[in-house]
Specification:
By secondary structure, the protein is an alpha+beta fold. The chain has a domain of about 100 residues. It has five helices and eight strands. It has a five-stranded mixed sheet. The protein has a three-stranded antiparallel sheet with strand order 3-4-7. Strand 3 and strand 4 form a beta hairpin. It is rod-shaped and about 165 Å long. The chain starts with a strand and ends with a helix.
Length: about 240
Amino acid sequence: MEQQQFECGDHIECIDVRRDVQGRYYSQLNDIQDAFPGAARFRIEGKGILFLEDESGQRYSPNRIAFYPGKVVEIVLASQISYSSSDSIHSSHHIQHPSPESAKMIISLPTSPDSGLDHALDTNPLSPLITTLLARRHTSYDSTSSTSLTSISRLSTVELAQQIALLQQQLDSHRVVQESQHAEQMAEFTHLIQLHAEAKQRDEEMHRLVQQANDRLVIVQRKVEAILVQNYELHE
């Protein structure tokens, strides 16, 4: 049976790992919390370990982490996370520290829903109030998430409509430019045809005038010849 080694402070213990339907080993959070009560997060060489997710991207229930053979997994307790969060909030907002009794109750409350929350609520005198606050927090989170997704969807739809309108304007503008260029080309072509027709008409008129001139010249030449013949006959 494969085992994963865990440590929390000076406490080191090897815990049997489980195997899924695909034959992959993993460590289940419930098994770890049996040996290390309050375990909430895990690290290896200072780097956090993510909980495994199924094919749909959701965490397995109960939470589980991958199997790391030959490595020691460091356990981070929920109380350590609570202390860290309280110190961060105090340093940024300068909030007054709670009383020792309230601090104990807050620290004993796990930050992960799957890290022994039911046991903490059963032993905490403020469990009804805490349960109500958690329910409101989850409801608010779900509502905020839904509103954010709806806003993103609407924003994407508006942006898409704007892009389509802009593309349609560009197409209309391009079509107008093409129609204008086509009209100009047709007008220029018609003008060239007209110029060609006028030039042809002038050439025909010139040819007619030249022909008339030649005909007149022939007539004049014949008259001159006739006159010369008459003069010659008179002299004889």
